[in-house]
């Protein structure tokens, strides 16, 4: 999560050498990322994260959403923050320490988000991926992995840029986000997730440029 288009300059060198990184993704500059997502905790609450949840934060990047996740789930919940990039994961850890997040609330997982089922320390009831799904090379396989990893009755959320021309999605005066051809409509995400076994729950609009596609895993 917290991964954007490959035209960002900040941390581009660190991202470029990471094997297994999803295509057309890199970490954005911190200033425009904060401008785009000024209230990450509010976003997470809107998509249904709650106190006591066990959340898998896929592609957590520098932890912009990870720390608010920890604040929401509290001491009775748990966050598993996963990223394949050591540099990004270290930035997220530093952010968490600065925010006073306790070690017993979070697990740091340096691994490929395409291989999660059976490779995480606990079964989550919530899986979250933001601004990265557009770059997943084999989306059906990725979704099947997420479905297998999720607790029955749990929730899976994909946050994506709306399928709008890149030159119309400006942040701090510049076009931002993935190239237009890489963007997905909610219906495209819904079709893929449904094929993987998920039940469609709804779409949450996240102005100015994003939406969250929300899915459930059927109870056993």
Highlighted features:
Rossmann fold, 7-stranded mixed β-sheet, disordered N terminus
Describe this structure in words.
Helices cover about 30% and strands about 20% of the residues. It has about 220 residues and is an alpha/beta fold. The chain has a single domain (about 10-175, about 185-215), classed as 3-Layer(aba) Sandwich (Rossmann fold), CATH 3.40.50.150. It is globular. The model is unreliable at about 1-20 (pLDDT under 50).
Q: H/E order of the elements?
A: HHHEHEHEEHEEEHEE
Oligomer: single chain
Helix content: 25-40%
Give the helix/strand class: alpha/beta
- Which CATH class is shown? Alpha Beta
Number of helices: 7
Strand content: 15-25%
Q: Show unreliable segments.
A: 1-19
Q: So what's the overall shape?
A: globular
Query: What name does the CATH topology carry?
Result: Rossmann fold
**The CATH architecture:** 3-Layer(aba) Sandwich
Number of strands: 9
CATH evolutionary superfamily:
Vaccinia Virus protein VP39
Tally the structural domains: 1
Main beta sheet: strand number and arrangement? Answer: 7 strands, mixed
Q: Can you give the mean pLDDT?
A: 88
End-to-end gap = 28 Å
Q: How many whole angstroms does the radius of gyration measure?
A: 16 Å
